[in-house]
Amino acid sequence: MAQSFDAKSLELKGEALPIAEKVKYEGYRRYAPFSVSQNQVLTYVSGSTANAQLEWFDRSGKQISTIGEAAIFAQPSLSPDGTKLIAERMDSTPVKGISTL
Hints:
two-stranded antiparallel ribbon
């Protein structure tokens, strides 16, 4: 949800509006499942811990493109200009020399 805030009066203005659905939140983690760039572009994680597809959307909510292949992602963060995204990609492929349980 988002709501306008008047910094001078320190009061909320107008009605709260939904801006994203099913934003993923896992309280035991120490990061926010969303990020906002300096030019007001929002990125967020939604859904479950299953594979997800990273996607770019325009400001009207229309999908513009997909990014890479579906995987398990965490900690998305946008560049200050809102043109680049970085996120952790969880990979179950064993690394040579490292054993898994």
